[in-house]
Amino acid sequence: MRLRADLHIHTMYSGVGRLGQLRFPESIDRPESIVDAARAKGLNIICITDHNSIEGALIAKEYSKRFDDIEVVVGEEVSAAEGEIVGLWLTKQIPPRLPAEETVRLIREQGGIAIAPHPFSFHVPALNEKVFDLDLDGIEVLNGGHVDKYSNTMAREVSKKYAGRWAEIGSSDAHSISTLGYAWTEFEGDGTNDLRRAIEEKRTIPCGIPVPVDRAVFWSIRVVLGGMKMILLSLFGRLKPDPKDPLVTSVLKLSGQKKVAGIVGGMIYLIPPVPYLACIASNTWLNRRAKRLLDHISETLEKIGPAQSN
Questions:
Q1: What's the whole-number mean pLDDT along residues 228-252?
Q2: Which residues, 6+ apart, have CB-to-CB distance to 141 below 8 Å?
Q3: Is 273 or 307 the better-scoring residue by pLDDT?
Q4: Contact criterion met (CB below 8 Å) for 140 and 172
């Protein structure tokens, strides 16, 4: 039997991201909601991989035990010094900002699997050629969050050149329910043990497509609305401290000035058609940069060196 697994998903426990002076939640979706949505979309296994946290994954795993049609693997997308690394089958959080070799070592000490997410991205922290120096089990050759034409292409070409060195992984890198399930990994088996074995034996099949533009826009609108709601509640003293909710904690730490700026910025962003124009502008920049990189992809691959195997 061939099952579907999404190996790279975020929840509200991924915290707050930054874009210049702007602050925004990486995700506003609760772990339980991600499990429910994954079941509805026909996924058999999901790996919750929040930024530098396993809290959301532990909650999702416990919640999933009430169902017999889905399993959850505890993971983390670790911000290592040289780029992000996904650890799977973890029991403890891996601290951020350590050297990549140390990060992989700590994943191994827990009996975990190490994967390079979006390994050749030019717009999020990526390992790039550092992948050749690390003891990795797999690399994402299809990341659903990367709509540019270069990042996934480069990962596929490198994987092809170094055939058999890493398992080829497909993941949604979803930061919301709306972007979940567009990319995934298929494997032969009937559970998480078989998924792990398939990764170790390099028998995984990446499937799917990058997330459509309208779904990305919908995610951004939900994030802005969710952030504005929490800020407004805090301004009126109705947002109660909750040490188990990282977004509430982050909002309560903001100064009054930053809260007002967040509300004003959010209102401007939500004016039609600003979200779509912002997304179009972002995609235009990504595609222009991707085209320049694709024009030289053969030279880049040649510089990497001759094909090798483990």
A1: 93
A2: 152, 155, 156, 159, 168, 169, 170, 206
A3: 273
A4: no
